[in-house]
Amino acid sequence: MNKSKAPLFSVRDFFARFPDDEACLQHIMDVRFGMKHPCRKCLNVSTFHRLSGVRAFACSYCGDHVHPTAGTVFEDTRTPLQSWFYAIYLFVTTRHGVSGKELQRQLGVTYKTAWRMGMKIRELIGSLQDFDMLQGHVELDEAYVGGYRAGKRGRGAAGKTIVMGMKERGGDMRAVVIPNVKKSTLRDVTLRNVEAGSVVSTDELMSYGLLEGDGYVHGSVPHGEKIWSAYDYRTGETHSTNHVESFWKLFKVSVRSTHIHVSAKYMDRYLAEFTFRSNHRVMQNAMFDLIVARV
């Protein structure tokens, strides 16, 4: 997938491109079917014209109707399509994510509707995740997220969710929810996501000691000794977990400042949202098109 730098997608650009529901519906039709394609009923390569009063287009040969929003998150919604598109726009242009309250304010809908829209958009984003194996030099680091309402911070706070991040240097970020930091758990996640033979950097957590035996070139950085990077004379690689830790820092700040609290039940959706933005941040409006196309 091409992730070359795209021009800034401003609010003015958005409303010029999608001034009303008609423009949004036309875009969904273009993305899903195209205005000229083989009709499912008469099989002719036909052009399709807009029908008034319904979200549908008709075949110029036989009149068969095509409903672009059928089978999508937009199918039965009473929320204007432009509001859905603008919500997606906010998701791809913000750094810290979008809360349900913010969507409520921006869209003028109820909080229940805003929350549901946000979760549906996160589902779409999650379905876009790239599952190619990470390779080259990969940084691994686990983190504890949430629990801020318990009044106690740190790893011992109640209600925290354990997450594991994997960042390929010069490549993608991936993050998953894990039940614990036992050796078997970290090993399973690593084997499923990181190509054997890759160089892997971790902190000094004992559970990562298994990686050499699984074919990885493993280097650990003793953070407890205030050491943040270490040169490996065997490979000429500098081991650190700075990139993956930077992701966790942004994620935790965003949870505290934007979402206040994220439950373990929905943590995977928020992780998908933030990793998607991290992996596609140079794409700007192309990131928006990826999500809309996924509907």
Automatic annotation (TrEMBL):
Q: Which residues form the ISXO2-like transposase domain?
A: 133-279
**Which domain of life does the protein's organism represent?**
Bacteria
**Which SMART domains does the UniProt entry name for this protein?**
DDE_Tnp_IS1595
What InterPro entries is this protein classified in? Answer: IS1016-like_transposase, Tnp_ISXO2-like, Transposase_Zn_ribbon
**What is the protein's given name?**
IS1595 family transposase
Organism the protein comes from: Mesorhizobium calcicola
